[in-house]
Every structure is written in C-alpha cells, then in structure tokens.
Amino acid sequence: MHYPLKYRRARTVLYAVALFWLWTWFGSAAFIASLFHSPIHAIIAMYALFAFVLLSIPVFLLALAQLVLNRPAEVHDGVVVPLDGQRKPSGPSPRMQRQAS
C-alpha cells in the first residue's frame, strides 16, 4: 500500500537534515565564536552541536529508507473512480430527513 504522507515526511526530514548540515558547515563556527565571552556557554553549544551531528546521521539514513520504501506509484491521469462500497446515496440522508420533520 502506498502512504504519500510517509513519503512527504521523509522528504521533509531529508531537507531539514541537509539544511542543518549546511548551517553546520557555514554558520555554526560564527555562532560558537560569538559565545566565547562565556566559556561554559561555548562548551555547551559545542557539545549540543556534536550531539546533533551524530544524531543526524541515523536520522538521515532512516528518512532515506522511508523515502525509498514509500516512493509514489506511477502517476495516474487524474480520473477518480468511486469504489462500490463507498458510493454516496443520491438523496438526503435519513438523519437529515429526521431533522427536517
């Protein structure tokens, strides 16, 4: 069965991890350097950054696996065919008839 929401969530996670890695590569050094007026804050920031870097690797791999396992099926031509068990009755529902009287 195809789950489009799982595919979209996995794709969003991949984008978020890629954005985090770009920020780590380009902007995190300036962020940590701005914290050097307090060495404790800089140490905590470096520890958090290293923890998130290590955590982002398995998150990326799991999201990639979800992306591969839930890739969308072939594109249909947009025709909607109702299933037999899900057809709606053409008249008003019995509940609406009771409320009207």
From TrEMBL:
Q: Where is this region: Disordered?
A: 82-101
Supply the alphabetized keyword list. Answer: Membrane, Transmembrane, Transmembrane helix
Query: Where in the cell?
Result: Membrane
Q: Where are the transmembrane segments?
A: 12-36, 42-64
Look up and give the membrane topology term.
Multi-pass membrane protein
| Signal sequence annotation | none
Do the record's keywords include ATP-binding? no
Does Transmembrane count among this protein's keywords?
yes
- Which cellular component appears as one GO term in the record? membrane
InterPro entries from the entry?
Cation_efflux_TMD_sf (IPR027469)
Q: What is this protein called?
A: ABC-type transport system involved in multi-copper enzyme maturation permease subunit
